[in-house]
Amino acid sequence: MITWTIKKFDDLSPHELYTILRLRSEVFVVEQNCVFLDMDNKDQSSYHLMGWRNGQLVTYTRLVQPGIAYAEPSIGRVVTSPSARGTGIGKLVMEKSIEEAERLFGKKAIKIGAQLYLKKFYHSFGFEQSSDIYDEDGIEHIEMTRE
Asked: What is the DSSP string of the chain?
């Protein structure tokens, strides 16, 4: 059972913010062995979708308003705790993220920057590749758009 919480940056408690940044660091920096500056000044104007199970943050996404990362609204920093993988939670967080993005920003195109190896996963939610492959911090990425 997942308990969903969505908050604007200024409404996050220090505990929630720490937990979010820890999970993002655990996966994007340590697990993927990628040194990069995760805190990119987009968090402050974004919504933060958290999936909790038994008091632990097991999945998270950042919903970025139009005009910040792209002209369109965006879903970013999609992450699932290693302890929760293989349970279908990645699918759940994307479904919930799309639902919340449409609620917050209206039913319009959503753009993401996706790691190339996840192209098929995001395609299953209606995202289509909309850019050439590019390197971001040593990892191949593509932009994908869901009309």
From this structure: --EEEEEEGGG--HHHHHHHHHHHIIIIIIITT-------S-GGGEEEEEEEETTEEEEEEEEEPTTTSSSS-EEEEEEE-GGGTTSSHHHHHHHHHHHHHHHHH-S--EEEEEEGGGHHHHHTTT-EE-S--EEETTEEEEEEEE-
